Amino acid sequence: HWPGDYGGPMFLLPGLVIACYVTETELPAEHRAEMLRYLRNHQNEDGGTGLHIEGHSTMFGTSLNYVAARLLGMAADDPHCLRARAFMHGRGGAVNNTSWAKFWLALLGVYEWRGINPLPPEMWILPYWLIVHPGRFWCHCRMVYLPMSYLYGKRAACPPTPLTEALRKELYVEPYSEIAWEEQRNNCGPADMYVQHHPLQDLLWKVVAAAEPWIPAWLRRRALSWCADMILHEDGSTRHVDIGPVNKAINMVCCWYDDPHGEAFKAHLPRIFDYLWLAEDGMKMQGYNGSQAWDTAFAVQAIAASGLGEEAEVSPILRKAHEYLDASQVREDCPEVERYYRHISNGAWPFSTQDHGWPISDCSSEGLKGVIAVEALGLPGVAALEPERLFDCVNVILSYQNTAEHWGTGGWATYENTRGPAALELLNPSECFGDIVIDYSYCELTCACITALSHFHRRHPGHRTAEISTAIKLGAQWIRDKQRPDGSWYGSWGVCFTYGAWFGVVGLASVGEREATSPHVAKALAFLRSKQLPDGGWGESYLSSSRKEYHHADASQVVNTSWAMLALLAGTEGCDESMAGAAPVLARAAAFLMSMQEPTGDWPQQLISGVFNHNCMITYANYRNIFPLWALGQYRRRLRGEPLPNLDAVPTLKL
Fold first, then answer.
1. Which residues share a beta bridge with 237?
2. What is the pLDDT of residues 580-599, one digit of tens each?
3. Using one digit for the tens of pLDDT, what is the confidence trace for 608-655?
4. CA–CA separation, 15 and 67 (whole Å)
5. What pLDDT is recorded for position 650?
6. Cα–Cα distance list, 207 to 152, 184, 211, 223 (Å)
7. Is 93 left (phi over 0), alpha (psi -120 to 50) or beta?
8. Residue 49 φ/ψ, nearest 5 degrees
9. Is 565 exposed, middle or buried (0-12, 13-18, 19+ CB in 10 A)?
10. Which of 87, 222, 308, 611 could be 545's S-S partner, Cβ–Cβ 3.0 to 4.6 Å?
């Protein structure tokens, strides 16, 4: 696989540092030094720290990174800490904060649990038919609030130490003993507030807070026991990697509180290092245990599509990558799928590793396309996967489609089907993240799934043909319906409208639509042409994602330019007039990409290109090489008069 930096969010490392402090887990001295270097490098000029490395300063980022710095050994009178304290105190202190920050501070013992909106573990033993049951929530939301509710139910807090006593003085403007904690529950400043609490949410919290003292002790014990069971299931089914860095750290603390000497806690410790990445800016905690399978699937498709895959110096690379995709496919469902609110996973590809194992619709789709692309080259030493394994993957992809029974109309969500109505988003408690409560259908995932099904059908035209035809037809219509009036698609997992355009156009091109025949493709390409910059490139700021409207970056970006090129190539393929019209646009874009390539063959790391939940950005370091290679490779094929692969409609599919 291709390893790469998957950092960017600034709230991840502090959670791990707090978890290690609470559980008396000592990080190696060299790690601590590099973590401190990372924190120093990403302090903003105003003394604060953002939600992510390119973001404006927030209380969430500043307070947690201040705490992390102190726990890692930085002195309170260090200039870094002095600037951070000035930022916090000038904005009311750490009480003026997000709920996630308050959780971590309460766990550390430097904030009071009664200053947090309730997270009662009893919600997990409600009947599932209730629409608000947390088993219906998006898995990342569910798997974070599960251990949060466990620790909240126990009111777990680190015993006082001289350092935590000092932090109680440093974080706040007023004396700790005089803070009116109940009044701080909804106290969150404008710099942090991306999603306002709905009045219904606030009312629900008031009711739960009033009722909680009346919850019988036996019911609390039962709820905590079930939460602990679910936490252990998550740990075991992911080999203690867990779905992401936040619940990884919190689950570790839960296991420690259950038994600090137990095997459940000890098994967490070696897997801490799966999340750590050392880069030029220091050591960070990544947004996952890596993006190995995702990047590898894209890389092999880029190489294969370029027409260079059979070259002597390239074919061994594809063989090794195919071996990784072979090894990383998930080969079984996790235990007791329905009991633990999980989706089937046998045959899926994960985002990272088989150990992690959580199945995802677009990762499965890109993994399937990557395998098919390499095997189609007939390279020596590449052993094709058994057809049954591809059939299993298709089964997973088809199972993900959101039809009427899943509050959908043919799109695909991420890890699971949508399990509740969009109205559940009114209960979003996070303040700083958008669309976290349910698993929505997305343009990128829908396009990835219909193109994967199309690629698969070319290879196995007799397998579940009617189901695949219906799924692709529904998915393509969903894509058309979600196009904005200006021709764009909002990209939810990459920055942003160029990312959405690449997926949207390629998705429609895979069912035979082109600029000359489809108003949707024509509008999308017109949108892209309108955003091309004078130097031939495209450049989007992360503000496109958070504000949901196109924002030019200060300079053209190689990744955005590549996505735009791939969309233009797909949308004009096979039509002489359209290809002629796109030629000058593509020529300028290709010239820009070639001018940006470094003598080593690398492209520079520019602005951050990934995003999640609209408001937090994340780095995909390999994108800077994968996508220029892909775009230039396909452009080279265009210039040589070679057809682009997999873009003609499949006649045996009834679309």
1. none
2. 999 999 999 999 999 999 99
3. 999 999 999 999 999 999 999 999 999 999 999 999 888 766 666 766
4. 10
5. 65
6. 17, 17, 6, 19
7. left
8. -130, 145
9. buried
10. 611
Residues in the chain predicted with pLDDT less than 70, given as ranges, are 648-652, 654-655
- Catalytic residues, by residue number, are 362
Question: How high is the pLDDT of residue 645?
Answer: 83
Q: Which residues contact 402 (CB under 8 A, 6 or more apart)?
A: 408, 409, 410, 411, 412, 413, 417, 418, 441
Distance in angstroms (rounded) separating the CA atoms of residues 585 and 530: 11
Residue 187, classed as helix, strand or coil, is coil
Task: Tell me phi and psi for residue 483, to 5 degrees.
Answer: -70, 140
Torsion of CA 430, 432, 438, 440, to 10 degrees: 180
Residue 520 has a pLDDT of 98
- Could you tell me how many residues make up the chain? 655
Q: Cα–Cα distance between 411 and 416 in angstroms, integer?
A: 12
The greatest distance separating any two alpha carbons of the chain, rounded to the nearest whole angstrom, comes to 76
CB-count burial class (<10 Å; 0-12, 13-18, 19+) for 482: middle
- Give 552's contacts (C-beta < 8 A, 6+ positions apart): 531, 533, 539, 540, 541
Beta bridge partners of 538: 557
Residue 651: what pLDDT?
63
3-state secondary structure of 150: helix
DSSP bridge partners of 283: 278
Instruction: Provide the pLDDT for residue 309.
Output: 87
Three-class DSSP category at 618: strand
**Are the C-beta atoms of 301 and 502 separated by less than 8 Å?**
no
As given in the structure block, the two tokens for residue 271 are: 């897997």
Per-residue model confidence (pLDDT) at position 652 = 63
Structure tokens at 612: 């999640």
For the whole model, what pTM was predicted?
Answer: 0.97
**If we measure between CA atoms, which residue out of 54, 31, 32 comes closest to residue 44?**
54
Amino acid identity, position 370: G
Torsion angle, CA of 327/328/332/334, rounded to 10 degrees? 140
Question: Which residues are paired to 284 by β-bridges?
Answer: 277
Q: How would DSSP label each residue in 13-64?
A: HHHHHHHHHHTTPPPPHHHHHHHHHHHHHT--TTS-EESBTTSPEEHHHHHH
The Cα-based distances of 33 to 14, 77, 355 in angstroms read 14, 18, 29
Q: Within its chain, how far is the Cα of 499 from the centroid? A: 14
Q: Please tell me the predicted confidence (pLDDT) of residue 545.
A: 97
Q: Quote the pLDDT of residue 123.
A: 96
pLDDT score, position 166:
98
DSSP SS3 for 470 = helix
Instruction: Tell me the two tokens of residue 52.
Output: 């992510």
How far apart CA 643 and CA 573 sit, in angstroms, is: 8
Q: What is the pLDDT of residues 316-327, one digit of tens each?
A: 999 999 999 999
Distance CA 293, CA 417 (A): 22
